[in-house]
Write a structure and sequence with these properties.
Elements: E1 9-14, E2 19-24, E3 27-34, H1 36-42, E4 58-66, H2 90-99, H3 107-117, H4 128-141, H5 144-149, E5 156-161, H6 163-174, E6 181-186, E7 193-202, E8 208-209, E9 236-237, E10 243-245
Antiparallel strand pairs: 1-2, 3-4, 3-7, 5-10, 6-7, 6-9, 7-8
Helix pairs in contact: 2-4
GO molecular function: ribonuclease T2 activity; RNA binding
Pfam families: Ribonuclease_T2
């Protein structure tokens, strides 16, 4: 997540209903982070907290995205490079233990899953340490908890939020022309919506850009299907007219 030259390479783009092979020349990166208070509200327990300090969101992943009109969306499993935690430097691990934990699933297994599914698609066939160091660095630089707090939005079980509250908070920090995307968990008992995951997008030089890549004319936001593995929390859905940012 530091600028570097992007090499042209062949990736296999896995779409929702089909798989195709493309030579991609332009990339975008999606930094997805999840609010721990919401995740642990809908999950039975969260025993894998690492050194999480409650002052940030938890990294879900850093996802390379092609900018091809025909394949805009997640690209996955681009090369064989099994996750090996021994390849990650200790100083990188120290930061990861704060910003990227499994919460309700084993942390090492979660990181390994994200590396093999998304990290292997990072242009230039970067090392595992580089990928995780980049993701952790972006999470520290763009602290979603702090961005919301600057607009007076803190976790509060009783405060109702609307879409413009979140968008305006991020626009105040990232710029009014930058579009972010976010989604919620829905409590199956109360019917309340909890702010669950938020995505900020970056260009090839890892500079903020708008998340405007469309999968179809009917879908203006980038939403990877999150319900395909043991590392998926409850289904993410569009937030209702009002939603909550729950306390830890």
């Amino acid at each position: 997540m530091k600028g570097r030259n992007i090499q042209v390479f062949v990736v296999f783009c896995i779409l929702i209903n089909a798989s195709y092979s493309y030579k991609a020349t332009t990339y975008m990166y999606i930094l997805a982070q999840e609010w721990v208070g919401s995740v642990c509200n809908v999950e039975p327990s969260c025993p894998y907290m690492g050194k999480y300090d409650g002052q940030r969101w938890n990294v879900h992943g850093l996802w390379p995205n092609t900018q091809l009109a025909s394949s805009c969306g997640s690209i996955q499993y681009c090369r064989t490079d099994p996750y090996d935690s021994s390849k990650i430097y200790q100083n990188t691990k120290d930061v990861l233990d704060v910003v990227w934990n499994g919460l309700y699933s084993d942390t090492e297994a979660f990181r390994g899953y994200e590396w093999e599914k998304h990290g292997t698609c990072y242009p230039g066939e970067v090392s595992q340490n580089y990928f995780f160091q980049t993701a952790a660095g972006l999470a520290q630089k763009y602290n979603y908890f702090s961005i919301l707090a600057k607009s007076g939005i803190y976790p509060d079980d009783s405060r109702q939020l609307v879409e413009s509250d979140v968008r305006n908070a991020f626009a105040a920090v990232l710029g009014s022309n930058v579009k972010i995307t976010f989604s919620c968990f829905k409590d199956q008992v109360t019917g309340k919506y909890f702010l669950g995951q938020l995505k900020v997008c970056f260009d090839e030089q890892l500079q903020i850009r708008t998340c405007n890549c469309k999968l179809s004319q009917d879908d203006g936001e980038i939403e990877e299907q999150q319900n395909d593995s043991q590392f998926s929390a409850q289904p993410l859905v569009s937030c209702g007219s009002v939603f909550y940012y729950p306390e830890l």
